[in-house]
Amino acid sequence: MLTVSTAACIDPKADYEGFAQRPLAEREASVVDVPLTPCQELLKDFPAGKFLATCRPAVTGLPFALLAEQTVTTSPDGVTGTFNMSLQGLKYGATNGSETVGDAIPLAPAMIGSDCTYTDNVGTLVIPAETTILMRELVAENVVLRGKLQSADRSCAELDGNVPLIMLDLNKDGDVCLFLRLPADGTLPTVSDNDYACDPSILPPR
């Protein structure tokens, strides 16, 4: 026996009204696929690593170098994060990150804002004698780093504080620290005088 199936009549208007009255699925009802900001992209993809931390006080014009190890932990919402850094002295004139002096000192974690800026309250920072051209241990007090992550390989900061032994005041703009990622072989990048630039307007206020 041949069986013939007859399709029901199609009513476009009724079909559309039925579709429009359906409850929205979760993906339809919420805002999705919002592009990440440049800072969110940086926080998401920031690899832990070693950096040359080179700081040049404006008054002396004499830089000193430290080895920094940095990690970033992104918050659950992906908008902010936590910045962890340790600092260790580098021998004056060092050419490789392996030429360290003394122990690595972990700093207190700092919050990274949605604009990738941070304020790291370092407190007292002891700079080994072998690290500076003076060949004399220096103790910096009330040290604060007000910085910004600019890329996965570079950031800059203003160095605030004071060094009583040499009566050095670091509480004005221009005392710049640069953080430059080291390559796999640890070679320290070359830094020129013109590289010491960090626009105060992009940093957290004092």
Spatial separation of the terminal alpha carbons: 91 Å
- Helix-strand string: HHHEEEEEEEEEE
What is the fold named in CATH at topology level?
Lipocalin
CATH first level: Mainly Beta
Mean pLDDT: 89
Which CATH architecture would you pick? Beta Barrel
- Helical coverage, percent range: 10-25%
Strand % is 35-45%
Q: Give me the count of strands.
A: 10
The major beta sheet can be summarized as:
10 strands, antiparallel
Radius of gyration, CA atoms, in whole angstroms? 27 Å
What is the tally of helical segments? 3
Number of domains: 1
> Unreliable segments (pLDDT under 50, ≥5 consecutive)?
1-8
Shape: elongated
Structural class: mainly beta
Write up this protein.
This protein has 206 residues and is mainly beta. It has a single domain (38-185), classed as Lipocalin (Beta Barrel). The protein contains 3 helices and 10 strands. Strands 1, 2, 3, 4, 5, 6, 7, 8, 9 and 10 form a 10-stranded antiparallel beta sheet that branches. Residues 1-8 have low confidence and may be disordered.
